[in-house]
């Protein structure tokens, strides 16, 4: 436990904040897991935030002219630089406080939102720089495992075997040919105080992690798994089920890295087979039994590695 | 040959494949995703390589690496992505590499919008990166032309050892038209500069740092000479020049709307000509100069705040009046809007 969390009792179903910093009426697809994650994250953060968004689905659906869903200060920038712009905002706030032009004890959380493409691919350099410099900010990656806003192109976070428009399966390819990039591990490798993974299926866990990330002094990184019915070829009503399955099959384990130490926040002792998760999605429909076995082996090995990290670190 | 119904973006990709493009590097951005999507499907089948980069900057540098070995390759993006590539554009020009870049442009500045815009005219023709350089810039007005000009861009870029840019927009990129995918003859030029090992001969070096006295100057003079030689590639479509009093000028997809307006005006008996630059750099000065010498006035219609009008003014050199009908992006004009402006221009005299 970090000293910053001493006063934070955690959210429960009874004490959820009433305010909705992210207004309804936006244009997200039916069953969008990403916008749910964004709404919950902002609910946990409250109204005293400055949100910086990289371009992507969440920006497009939340700000069709002349409307906006953002009830909190919002700065929208290009694809690759949410973390860099957040660094600038945080540095400016610090300077203002130092010069007495901004109340020293007033808490404003700087939070950067980006998708998996904006984090794992084009924004990785800016993210690494910001984490290394130690800015007091939260970076939230809303991971729906491809570039969905531009029409489902593969990203570094697209899982092995998935079909996207730029990783089409066929005779020469099985779909996405590389394994999902482990961005939380990259963030943790910077030695920052707090890294966490979350999913909207476990919403209290998500909100608690985001709040803890904001309370931490220094950079914090939260990776949120966000189902995308449109891009994955799933039913809108299945998003939460899928998010739950991803955890229960150990495909997306929930854990925290607090000052370098790993804690598994939801231990899965009786995992479901990955097939149960894969079969529900059109993007994996072409996978053969052999490929599914390969994925199962990889998932098992990765989870084993995580367990060992949690034991010895 | 049977026509196929394709989008402009797809026609560009098909043109590149026809020209023997072996490698494609790209990054997702609207409204050009049909290019990487088609390349992802087609290139592996033909023994080529499709790679999705982690950013536009990486994509264009992959392109730089690929073309330095003498292979035909290209990348495509849309306005904000093209801006991110700007640094490498300067290096491509300095290294004199025959790379093909496609800009299916959208509205700006900043993230702007995703509708048709011609706001990237300056960026394309003046060079987005640093230093004294130019790209060869081609701008198609139909889907057939998009197919053919893309193949031509590969040929010209090799002929002059020079990066070539296709400047089109969301309107042409996203609309469908019949395309006759006919076989095109794309000439090859010797690549005695390509990096392919140094067995039995001195190593070849591609570099852009010149620190010796007079070295950089000589280098720039050489490039200048090349850009001057490229002028012979200037192309324009000129219609109804005979007896015209006013010439209406536009490029790219907008020229289709403008052409219709000109034809409406001519039906009503107005003496109006139509000029469409096909190459934006080199700019086809000749038809403009000739019309200006006959006292023909100009009306330049663009989907921006007035950029090409500057090149028209430079071409006519004060010999005639040049008016600008600048239409910043969001709504496309109807032919009637332009027709009314043509009428007003002619009545004023």
UniProtKB/TrEMBL annotation, chain A:
It comes from the Bacteria. Coiled coil: none annotated. The keyword RNA-binding does not apply. InterPro entries: PorB-like, THDP-binding, TPP_enzyme_TPP-bd. Keywords: Oxidoreductase, Pyruvate. It is an enzyme of class 1 (oxidoreductase). Gene3D superfamilies: 3.40.50.970. CDD domains: TPP_PFOR_porB_like. One of its GO terms (molecular function) is pyruvate synthase activity. Residues 55-224 form the Thiamine pyrophosphate enzyme TPP-binding domain. Its EC number is 1.2.7.1. PANTHER family: PYRUVATE SYNTHASE SUBUNIT PORB. This is Pyruvate synthase subunit beta. It comes from Thermosulfurimonas dismutans.
UniProtKB/TrEMBL annotation, chain B:
Keywords: Oxidoreductase. Residues 15-179 form the Pyruvate flavodoxin/ferredoxin oxidoreductase pyrimidine binding domain. Residues 244-322 form the Pyruvate:ferredoxin oxidoreductase core domain. It comes from the Bacteria. Pfam families: PFOR_II, POR_N. InterPro entries: 2-oxoacid_oxidoreductase (IPR052368), PFOR_II (IPR033412), Pyrv_Fd/Flavodoxin_OxRdtase_N (IPR002880), THDP-binding (IPR029061), Transketo_C/PFOR_II (IPR009014). GO terms for molecular function: oxidoreductase activity. This is 3-methyl-2-oxobutanoate dehydrogenase subunit VorB. It comes from Thermosulfurimonas dismutans.
């Amino acid at each position: 436990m970090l000293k910053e969390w001493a006063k934070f009792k955690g959210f429960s179903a009874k004490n959820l904040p009433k305010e909705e910093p992210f207004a309804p009426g936006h244009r997200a697809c039916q069953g969008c897991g990403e916008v749910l994650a964004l709404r919950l994250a902002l609910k946990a953060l409250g109204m005293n935030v400055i949100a910086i968004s990289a371009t992507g689905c969440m920006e497009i659906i939340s700000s069709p002219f002349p409307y906006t869903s953002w009830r909190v200060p919002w700065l929208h920038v290009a694809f690759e630089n949410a973390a860099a712009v957040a660094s600038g905002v945080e540095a400016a706030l610090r300077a203002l406080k130092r010069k007495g032009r901004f109340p020293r004890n007033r808490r404003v959380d700087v939070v950067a939102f980006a998708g998996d493409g904006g984090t794992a691919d084009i924004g990785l350099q800016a993210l690494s720089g910001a984490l290394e410099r130690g800015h007091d900010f939260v970076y939230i990656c809303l991971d729906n495992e491809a570039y969905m806003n531009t029409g489902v192109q593969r990203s570094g976070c697209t899982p092995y075997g998935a079909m996207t428009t730029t990783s089409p399966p066929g005779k020469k390819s099985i779909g996405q040919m590389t394994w999902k990039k482990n961005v939380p591990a990259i963030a943790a490798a910077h030695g920052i105080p707090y890294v966490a993974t979350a999913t909207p299926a476990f919403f209290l866990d998500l909100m608690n992690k985001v709040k803890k990330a904001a309370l931490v002094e220094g950079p914090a990184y939260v990776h949120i798994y966000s189902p995308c019915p449109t891009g994955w070829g799933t039913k809108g009503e299945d998003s939460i089920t899928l998010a739950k399955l991803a955890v229960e099959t150990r495909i997306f384990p929930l854990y925290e890295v607090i000052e370098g130490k790993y804690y598994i926040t939801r231990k899965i002792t009786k995992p479901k087979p990955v097939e149960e998760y894969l079969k529900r999605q059109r993007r994996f429909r072409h996978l053969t039994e052999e490929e599914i076995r390969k994925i199962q082996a990889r998932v098992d090995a990765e989870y084993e590695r995580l367990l060992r990290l949690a034991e010895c670190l | 040959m049977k026509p196929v119904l394709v989008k402009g973006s797809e026609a560009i990709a098909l043109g590149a494949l026809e020209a023997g493009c072996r490698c494609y590097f790209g990054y997702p951005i609207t409204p050009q995703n049909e290019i990487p999507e088609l390349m992802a499907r087609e290139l592996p089948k033909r023994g080529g390589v499709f790679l999705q980069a982690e950013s536009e900057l990486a994509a264009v540098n992959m392109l730089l690496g690929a073309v330095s070995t003498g292979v035909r390759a290209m990348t495509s993006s849309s306005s904000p992505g093209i801006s991110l590539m700007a640094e490498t554009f300067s290096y491509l020009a300095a290294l004199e590499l025959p790379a093909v870049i496609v800009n299916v442009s959208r509205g700006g500045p900043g993230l702007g919008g995703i509708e048709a815009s011609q706001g990237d005219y300056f960026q394309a023709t003046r060079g987005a990166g640093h230093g004294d350089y130019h790209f060869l810039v081609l701008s198609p007005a139909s889907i057939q032309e998009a197919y053919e000009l893309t193949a031509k861009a590969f040929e010209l870029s090799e002929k002059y050892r020079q990066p070539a840019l296709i400047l089109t927009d969301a309107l042409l990129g996203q609309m469908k038209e019949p395309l006759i995918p006919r076989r095109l003859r794309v000439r090859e030029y010797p690549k005695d500069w390509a990096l392919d090992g140094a067995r039995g001969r001195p190593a070849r070096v591609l570099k852009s740092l010149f620190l010796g006295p007079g070295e950089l100057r000589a280098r720039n003079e050489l490039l200048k000479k090349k850009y001057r030689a490229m002028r012979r590639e200037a192309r324009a479509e000129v219609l109804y020049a005979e007896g015209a009093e006013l010439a209406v000028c536009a490029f790219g997809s907008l020229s289709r709307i403008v052409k219709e307006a000109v034809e409406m005006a001519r039906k009503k008996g107005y003496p109006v000509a139509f000029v469409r630059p096909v190459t934006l750099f080199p700019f086809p000065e000749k038809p403009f100069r000739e019309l200006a010498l006959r006292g023909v006035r100009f009306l330049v219609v663009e989907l921006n705040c007035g950029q090409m009008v500057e090149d028209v003014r430079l071409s006519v050199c004060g010999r005639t009046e040049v008016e600008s009908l600048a239409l910043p992006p969001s709504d496309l004009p109807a032919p009637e809007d332009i027709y009314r402006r043509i009428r007003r221009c002619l009545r004023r005299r």
